[in-house]
Fold each of these.
Amino acid sequence: MAATLSVLFISYILGSIPSAIWVGKGLKGVDVREHGSGNAGTTNTFRVLGVPFGITVFVLDFMKGFASSFWLSSVAFLWFNGPLAPPNWDVESFLSIACGVSAVIGHMFPIFAGFKGGKGAATACGMLFGIEPVSISISFALFGLIIWATRYVSLASIMATALYPITLLVMRYGLDIFVDGSVIIFAAIIAFGIIYKHKSNIQRLIEGTESKVGEKARLAKQ
């Protein structure tokens, strides 16, 4: 159990790496928390620093989730020595989810940035890719399509996140592809949490004041 708890803690620490803050300060001398929406995440990095830096932060945040759910969970599985998984759950699936969720929590509440982080979409995307790559690839394709069509990163994140648990349901019950039930449950929970974290973006989208990729950043926090 101690080894498993250690891996979960490492996942949280990995998720806590504030990619947007470090990339902004290190490469541009800009703290993204002081511009745009004030959020330390991928969406605000696109908005404040532009596409190249937004992509850089997205990749880093994505890898935090992927490394946790795919690699660190594998280490935990090899060392698994305690009854952490609930009854009737597949242990490997549970560990992938637990490590990935720890990374997402770390991203949202990073110990290295005063527990004020991003909204978790990119890290959750990496986490879910490590668990089940087909469905998250569909969501990722939708993410890119919406950004190309609308230039709203927040809208792309919300729509792609909402699609993910729906795709899993279609795979399991429509296409008869095995998907562990625990993955579907946690996918729905993660999707709800990410969409809820975007509530301010949703309000701005409704009002027509949400910033687009390529626009001049709003210097005042909204």
Amino acid sequence: MKFINPKVDYAFKKIFGSQQSKEILISFLNAIIYDGEKTIESLTIVNPFNPGQIIGRGEWSFAPTLDIKAVLFDGSIVIIEMQVARMTAFNKRVAYNLAKAYANQLDKGENYPLLNPAIALTITDFILFKKTDDFINKFVFQ
């Protein structure tokens, strides 16, 4: 039996980003983010459209979309992206998408204490940081 490659965008979204696969996504996030501890018990998969300023010019403008966006039981936002090919300024794209997910929680006039944590989980099929032997890197902005 031949299986579809999970690195293909459609397959990745189907495996981890559909309502039918919520338990798989929960297990995956617990394994990656919480070192296998069963911290996440529930989550909501939301529209991966990352609203904000439109990028581009004229008719060909587009708004950034994420592969998967979920809201955890505690209100934390997780954006998950799979990137197979190296692209220019990819690290900036990750930071931008995370910042937009964080900032888009508030409407005009709402207070900053309402903000929940935002987590970017980025899976690459290439070495993003050349000076490390680790396969999994964890970064915390503080």
Amino acid sequence: MIDRRTLIAATAASALAQTAPPTPTAANISSVMLWTLKGSFEEKMEAAAKAGIQSVEFVGEHAEWDAAAIDRVKLLARSLKLGIDTISSTPFWSRMPISMVDPAQRDNLLKEVRKNIDAAQRLEIPMLLLMSGNAIPGKTYAEQWASLVEGAKRCGDLAAKANVTLIVEPLNTKVNHKGYFLDSCVAGVKLMKEVNHPHIRLLFDLYHEQVQVGDVTRTLRDAMPYVKVFHIADNPGRNDPGTGEMNYPFLYKEIKKAGYTGFLTMEYIPLGDQVKSLIAAVDSMRKALA
């Protein structure tokens, strides 16, 4: 006799074996950070699919998933025709001793990155976020920078073995992330040049850069050889593109002009109905890119 749980597991495994992760076909791939949406995990996934989004990004949703949960998530994504492009390699960076800028935390960092790379492989996800961590009191900027560069190289070697890419994310410290070390894409470009590792790339969050530095277009042009993902939100408020001061049609055209063909990820808080908001945001993006 085969019990119901065994039968369900076997059915799910069979379904997964017969399907492959969807391959986005557009030159610039629409994605959404799932944390920005309301509802349960399943409802958020369904909202992304209803909006015609092609892929999704997770942060730490995967942290407690066992093998069965991973299979369920992959099956759900495929049933909704959604790719999963990114998870975090350090989902709890703000409360764990895993800062890239402190050499004393290096072993903890590498252990955490290795664990999440394993999760990414089981989820068939090609990219992982990598966070610098907060600045360390008592250490000079130069000391922390040197540790950041070395840490990125060591993490890059782990990514190379697994054939995944780690994308380093600068965050603004003026509004959202007080104390974060790598606070601009200006510094991010400098980091990419010094690290010089094919499995370490830059996440360019247009909102964070506008808040922290401004002059987004000039930095975008300098950063393009290193950018793997763009994150999109308007300023102020981190809401729908087109509701603030940022000229997104112009920025999208700059991105296209540079020959970028990767992920354009919505990471904003929708002001109204989230499905309608995402449809409008992606339609506006596609129109500008066309």
